[in-house]
UniProtKB/TrEMBL annotation:
Protein name in UniProt: Arginine biosynthesis bifunctional protein ArgJ, mitochondrial
Major subcellular location class: mitochondrion
E.C. designation(s): 2.3.1.35, 2.3.1.1
GO biological process: L-arginine biosynthetic process; ornithine biosynthetic process
Catalysed reactions, as listed in the record: N(2)-acetyl-L-ornithine + L-glutamate = N-acetyl-L-glutamate + L-ornithine; L-glutamate + acetyl-CoA = N-acetyl-L-glutamate + CoA + H(+)
Function according to Swiss-Prot or TrEMBL: Catalyzes two activities which are involved in the cyclic version of arginine biosynthesis: the synthesis of acetylglutamate from glutamate and acetyl-CoA, and of ornithine by transacetylation between acetylornithine and glutamate.
Organismal lineage: Eukaryota, Fungi, Dikarya, Basidiomycota, Agaricomycotina
Subcellular location: Mitochondrion matrix
């Protein structure tokens, strides 16, 4: 009993070092944003409404990946509708925290549309396009099944115009407005170049619990195949110009290898949304308009942009795992030697969501048998070139713990044979904040995928046991 009390009383590591000021020259130009308190949350010190606007004179492309949960929240449905109506164009978005506006029926849809309309009203006029009531997207996060205090939110959107800015403080305010059980605002930026032209990416996301996204485009690209798979919300803004179809294609690819490859607790949210806006404010001008990167007409530039977007999305996604509710470990699970990426991804996901694996990691117990049990429970997919379905051969599988400090790796299973494991060394590795687990299926394929997850602690149970109160 004393042992249980001691562990329950221990606190999770501080995540404060993961948030730091960013150089203002690293933020994309042509955006204004803010975060304010409007009363969705009871605590007046907490920001609960964020507004982001593109002020570029060029058309702004927009792309999004949404949850595939059957109970899609009203803001997911409305944002998808806006993108479909506008052909992949939108010039801003609004986000509230504290209430998810999910499973709220007709009223929820009306409230989401009201948020879109009032945010659109803040956008500067654009001569190249007739102003519309629906030129913005919407996101919400918080408790499911409760209606928004929409009058407070609408009044707040109007008031947000007074504090819009483009400096670090404005970006930080917007990032804070996303937060629910997050312990720090998740904000990153970077500079990159394509053909000698300098562009910038900046993004923010939120998430600490109910994290196991399965996101992809909905009606925006009806023919797109399904992707592998409290709430994850995020946005990435760039001053590059990218065609709507190519922006969506790049985002879908990036999300699959970042946000769709993280898990805190294995629960998919009703609200998961990642938005990208590309406003072209830094793009070269040709024939009076920003030259848009396109995967069909400028493949090389598109591939560079896609890689930059993917790497950046991985950085943002990993912040969510590091801030997982009650998390004390950041764990990278790499599966290799699989027949294909899909199989490697599915097995890495299964290991990452196993409660038995995650609790063993918290207890710093090298119980690698749980990793094998999770691995062996996933059926492999059939090859398009063969009617035979491959199967895992236990005599070829290897498992290795890789320390994050660069010291020697610790194989625990090699070609199906257990190693004589030094338990003290294993515990030393598992006591590190960052842990790497490599599972080699030994099937000779080039399928490889990495999933990022965290451990399960007593603190996770405490947070979610009284979430609504």
């Amino acid at each position: 009993m004393a042992l249980v009390f001691r562990r329950w009383a221990s606190s999770t590591p501080s995540k404060a070092h993961l948030h730091k000021p960013l150089h203002e020259n690293s933020f994309p130009i042509g955006f204004k944003l803010t975060g304010i308190h409007v009363g969705v949350k009871k605590n007046k010190e907490l920001l609960d409404l964020g507004v982001v606007l593109s002020t570029s004179q060029h058309p702004t492309s927009a792309a999004a990946c949404f949850t595939r949960n059957a109970f899609k929240a009203a803001p997911v449905i409305v944002s998808d509708n806006v993108l479909a109506r506008n052909g992949g164009r939108a010039r801003g978005f609004v986000v509230n925290s504290g209430c998810a506006n999910a499973v709220t029926g007709k009223q929820g849809l009306e409230d989401a549309w009201a948020m879109v309309k009032h945010t659109t009203a803040l956008l500067p006029s654009q001569a190249a396009k007739e102003d519309t009531e629906h030129d913005a997207l919407v996101m919400s996060t918080g408790v499911i099944g409760q209606n928004l205090p929409i009058s407070k939110i609408v009044a707040g959107i109007r008031r947000a115009a007074d504090s819009l800015g483009s400096d670090f403080a404005a970006w930080e305010r917007a990032a804070k407005a996303f937060m629910t059980t997050d312990t720090f605002p998740k904000l990153r930026s970077r500079v990159f170049s394509i053909n000698g032209v300098e562009y910038r990416l900046a993004g923010m996301d939120k998430g600490a619990g109910m994290i196991h996204p399965d996101m992809g485009p909905l009606s925006t690209i009806p023919s797109s195949p399904r992707q592998l798979h409290a709430t994850l919300l995020g946005c990435i803004l760039t001053d590059a110009a990218v065609s709507p179809r190519s922006l969506q294609s790049a985002l879908t690819y990036a999300v699959d290898r970042s946000f769709n490859s993280i898990s805190v607790d294995g629960d998919m949210s009703t609200n998961d949304t990642i938005i990208v806006l590309a406003n072209g404010a830094a793009a070269p001008i040709r024939d009076g308009r920003a030259h848009e990167i396109d995967e069909e007409t400028d493949r090389d530039s598109y591939e560079i942009f896609k890689k930059e977007l993917t790497d950046f999305a991985v950085d943002l996604a990993q912040l969510v795992v590091r801030d997982g509710e009650g998390a004390t470990k950041f764990v990278a699970v790499k599966v290799q030697g699989a027949p294909n990426y899909k199989d490697a991804h599915a097995i890495a996901s299964k290991i990452s969501t196993s409660a038995l694996v995650k609790t063993a990691l918290y207890g710093e117990d090298a119980n690698w048998g749980r990793i094998l049990a999770a691995t062996g429970s996933v059926p492999l997919s059939s090859s398009p070139n063969s009617e035979e379905v491959p199967v895992i051969n236990p005599s070829k599988v290897s498992v290795t713990f890789v320390p994050s400090d660069g010291t020697a790796e610790l194989p625990v299973l090699v070609n199906g044979e257990p190693e004589n494991v030094d338990e003290d060394r294993a515990k030393q590795i598992l006591s590190m904040e960052d842990i790497n687990i490599v599972v080699d299926l030994g099937l000779g394929g080039d399928g490889e995928a990495t999933y990022w997850t965290c451990d399960f602690s007593y603190e996770y149970v405490r947070i979610n046991g009284d979430y609504r109160s």
